[in-house]
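Contributing new records

If you add data, match the layout below exactly. Sequence lines come first and carry their own label; structure lines follow with theirs. Keep one chain per record. Anything else will be rejected by the validation script.
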Amino acid sequence: MKKKALGFIVLAFFVVLMICPVMGKPQTFIVPIKQAQFQWRAWDPMPTEGSAWSELYQNYLTEIDCKLSGNVIHTYYSYSPVVSDLEGEQTIYVCDKKSGFWIEREGTVSYRYPPYYGDHAIVNYWRGYLNFSGTPSATNFVHGVAYQWVYLDASEEDGGVLPYAQWDPVMEMWLLGYSIYLWDADTATQSYTMNFDFVEPVPASNYNPLSL
């Protein structure tokens, strides 16, 4: 039986206005979203052009808990199944006046999950953005994208744990997985074929490397 991947996320966001004013009293609201995920994990061969993802689903109904506070977006990720030694799950987005997007600042989340990965730290790199039409509210969310890289923090000699793990000489860790999350306000049929000229999680300034 194929193992299911870690990394299903969701998601409490703290949001600010598109024109980046400094807000006064914090405000909270909940945004319903439809989530799609395109996922590769290293118990399958790395995808080549036209091959299947390890897992793909569309239009999973979930929600974003938002708090408008100051001029940044504070966000956190949660994981299922539950992981141990979770650190760095909070992140922030900042307003880009040119694009109008709220762009996630580069950060990492680390944890351990021995049933899959043994006694090694797993490091997730995240990047992406949120888009609202006007002042963010429960009713005007447009679209969001999150990119997730899953690395095992071990030396090249220690091996990659999963059968198709890839040693990444740029990050100096074992690549165990990669996901794209697409968030929409309404039902949407999403598609993305992984050509797999693999996108590294650096440089951090490239918040939307696949233009999704």
